[in-house]
Amino acid sequence: MDKKATFKQSLDNKMPSDQFSPILKALWFDGKGDWKSAHDQVDQMGGTDAAWVHAYLHRKEGDLWNADYWYARAKK
Description:
67% helix
């Protein structure tokens, strides 16, 4: 099974794998419809990958100004 399929299958679990990075956990919580937990995973993280996920979450939330800020930090 490829990584994408394994990740999608993990959404059937109650909690993300301990082996997932905080960024992957954020995407996992988003996949479960838990925006707050997803945001909490990346809220205080540095780096462009975390900023990119942070931007995505704010765009999804509808906070476009905040999303634009995080996209700029992600250099995307």
